[in-house]
Amino acid sequence: MKFKLRPATKEDCKEISRMIMELAVYVKMPDQVKITHEDLERDGFCQNPFFECLVAEVPEEHKSTEGFTVVGYGLYFYNYSTWEGRTVYLEDLYVMPEFRGNGIGKGLLSKIAQVGKKKQCVRLNLSVLDWNTPSRDFYTAQGARDLTDSEGWHLIRFDGQNLDNLANEAPED
Fold it and tell me: By CB neighbour count within 10 A (0-12 exposed, 13-18 middle, 19+ buried), where does 28 fall?
């Protein structure tokens, strides 16, 4: 199947928002999605964007059963390792179910790796839910290593009231 990968535009944010919700449903967490397409527009298409995104688009003759031509996305951002330097973090990689198995996911992943390498990133990091065996197998097949057992890293998060409490305890400037 023919498809095109391209940088997302502000006009793609409604489609990206739709697919974020599809992904959230797949991982059984639809109630956790709080952002809107307006948030994506503001945060991704401003002077100093918080993220970058690629979308996968198919020709009109291959559109989805619902009529969509934007059928996948990879949303990523940059961070920094104090041990190794520049890194890219893949927040989401999603392809609509009816388009899986056509190389779109691998294409998005490879393109994001290429973008990172062009910016001298030394690694690509991501998180996968422990029960999501198809995704874990996909990433492993592409050469990724699961650091959970080999290095013992745990994902730690502050959010909601705990984040507020922590921020409120900051020393005065």
Answer: exposed
Average pLDDT value for residue range 148-156: 88
Residue 48 in tokens: 């100093």
94: phi then psi, degrees, rounded to nearest 5: -140, 135
For residue range 16-46, what is the model confidence (pLDDT) as tens digits?
999 999 999 999 999 999 999 999 999 999 9
CB 54 within 8 A of CB 111: yes
Length of the chain in residues, anyone? Answer: 173
> Strand, coil or helix: what is 13?
helix
Q: Which two tokens stand for residue 53?
A: 């995104």
Is 139 considered catalytic here?
A: yes
Beta bridge partners of 126: 90
What is the Cα–Cα distance from 62 to 105, expressed in whole angstroms? 17
Is the Cβ–Cβ distance between 17 and 36 less than 8 Å? yes
Kindly report whether the global pTM for this prediction surpasses the value 0.90: yes
Please pick, among 73, 76, 89, 139, the residue that the annotation labels catalytic. Answer: 139
Check if the beta carbon of residue 73 is closer than 8 Å to that of residue 107. Answer: no
